[in-house]
Amino acid sequence: MARAMKVAIVDDEQDMRQSISQWLALSGFDTETFASAEEALKSIGPDYPGVVVSDIKMPGMDGMAFLKRLMSVDSGLPVVMITGHGDVPMAVEAMRVGAYDFLEKPFNPDRMTELAKRASQSRRMTLDNRALRKELSDGSTIMKKLIGASPAMERLREDILDLGQADGHVLIDGETGTGKTLVAHALHAVGPRAGKKFAVISCAAFSEEMLAQRLFGPIEEGGQIPLVEEARSGTLVLEDVEALSHALQSRLLTFINDQGTPAETRIIAICNDHEQGRTVEDALRPDLYYRLAALKITLPPLRSRGEDILSLFARLAEQFAEEYGCEAPQVTAQEAAQLLQAPWPGNVRQLINVAERAVLQNRRGSGSIASLLMAENEEAGPVMTTEGKPLKDYVESFEKMLIDNTMRRHKGSITAVMEELCLPRRTLNEKMAKYSLQRADYL
Ligand SMILES: Nc1ncnc2c1ncn2[C@@H]1O[C@H](COP(=O)(O)OP(=O)(O)OP(=O)(O)O)[C@@H](O)[C@H]1O
Ligand SMILES: [Mg+2]
């Protein structure tokens, strides 16, 4: 049997508690006994790693009241009720309230074991599912998805951790593909609202009426709960907030004002409007803008993130290579310079595309990163000129990328890297310190 499940046995009669406990312990359960429901409630919380067996007739809080309390603590907790002989109405009522099953006195011990086994299995599955869901919405998992060590990325990580804890509404803006939606997820996942509802709607994807209906209701026959309700105590993400009509802007403002502080529903507004210098400030009425932009995150365009471009590319190429079961392409110095100088109008999303295509090309053994970038830039229209960067920056970015790649390939073997790059140990150590590369990350 996998890790032993607990069984909490609740009965006011000591003989009964004792014999059930001994019997189940023999079958490999980790039993604990309680003489009253009140006492048991002190030890049984949400995610209790086991099941409960309880008598119905007890002085003080009876089994039925106990069951109701347990259901409000954790509605997924299997509770087996022991009913008096022939007490059918009671058994039916227990099942209705949420009991897992019932046993009629006097019962066959084998049947008790059987039931405890089934209930434990169901419990284990519930808990495993919960753990999985938690891991997926868990802050550390999503923070790990954010690649990059540039000062801009470091600041972004700090902002996410700070603002994730705060209560105010947040405005996120930045060019397309810079990670706005990802950051909205991260803000929700690292904060106290993590387990709560995370609702997303695009204000540009619906007609005004439909959007009003979806956001504020009223609920139509058999319709969905309005998002402002659904996201209560959670997070409501408004994508393309600049597309909100004036009428809806005032309704949203009223909703925000009526909520008071701290806000129950946290709003994360995402602005995707970056044409011709028209800002979100121009699109929203000022009072709404100031409520939403209490906390603001502006994501930097990829072209301004320097060496992150190379580490992102390397990491993404490696992921795709693994997915396709082939080698990741080695980036030459010239290609590195091209990656650094490309305008990247589609930002990280575009870089993901390029990395995937570079891997596929490499698998076929044809083409080059340069030709990929050229095709990209043609699609994007006239090549934008990027701000000039000193040669030193290019050289350093490339140096970092090379050491990073080589360390990865040799799984952190310093000797192998020294040999391949013809570097003395001290120089290698100095450079790794300079670029914040840690050997432990490659082992
Ligand atoms: N720092 C990062 N590290 C790794 N992946 C990233 C990073 N930033 C963004 N991404 C990835 O890039 C892609 C685009 O990100 P996202 O969809 O969040 O951008 P967006 O700003 O919301 O774009 P749009 O304006 O088009 O809605 C996603 O696949 C996301 O996971
Ligand atoms: Mg988005």
Ligand roster: adenosine-5'-triphosphate, magnesium ion
CATH architecture of the largest domain: 3-Layer(aba) Sandwich
Please name the CATH topology of the largest domain: Rossmann fold
Number of strand segments: 10
CATH homologous superfamily heading of the largest domain = P-loop containing nucleotide triphosphate hydrolases
N- to C-terminal distance: 34 Å
Most strands sheet: 5 strands, parallel
Number of domains: 3
Care to describe what's here?
The protein has 443 residues and is of the alpha/beta class. The chain has three domains: 6-136, Response regulator (Rossmann fold); 139-300, P-loop containing nucleotide triphosphate hydrolases (Rossmann fold), CATH 3.40.50; 304-442, no CATH class. Helices cover 52% and strands 12% of the residues. It is built from 20 helices and ten strands. The strands form two sheets. Strands 2-1-3-4-5 form a five-stranded parallel β-sheet, with helices on both faces. A five-stranded parallel β-sheet has the order 7-8-9-6-10. Helix 14 crosses helix 16 (347-364) and helix 14 (308-324) runs parallel beside helix 18. The longest helix is centred in the first third of the chain and has 29 residues, at 109-137. The two termini are 34 Å apart. The structure holds adenosine-5'-triphosphate and magnesium ion. Magnesium ion is lined by residues 180-181. Adenosine-5'-triphosphate is lined by residues 145-148, 174, 176-182, 272, 348-349, 352.
